[in-house]
Amino acid sequence: MFRKLAIASATTFVMSTAGFAGGHAKDIVDTAAGAGSFTTLVAAVQAADLVDTLKGEGPFTVFAPTDEAFAALPEGTVETLLKPENKDQLVAILTYHVVPGKVMSGDLTDDMSAATVQGGTVTIDLDNGVMVNDANVVTADIEAENGVIHVIDKVILPAS
Fold this sequence. Notes:
Layout: H1 2-16, H2 28-35, H3 39-47, H4 51-54, E1 60-65, H5 67-71, H6 77-81, H7 87-95, E2 98-100, E3 113-115, E4 121-125, E5 131-132, E6 135-144, E7 147-152
Helix pairs in contact: 3-7
């Protein structure tokens, strides 16, 4: 029953994003930049020198925190991470939000683990909607030419 609810929720997310960033014509970076709600994420990807990677062939699955998710971090966190001397930490956090391959919401199973580009793992929970670690997926299956974006409401952090 939970799986059916999660799939129904994911279907609702997909239907609500039908016109999102013009479909498959753009890569992950351009799709995120065109959405207007990922300016912090795009700035972080630029500061971490990950633009070319995420514009690459892929495919990639990106759990993309919104600007509001970044704003919810403790004051000064984003500014500190964007400093050149903190690039390695920024890269680790950003690549923790990326899973190799194209994982659509229909591919998810409850309590599944997925290896991230950063080297850690994220856990998917389908019991109360769709969650990645402790972040809610608020919009799923935004397709790009080199992968898929799932919008999350919280920045997820790798274990330190």
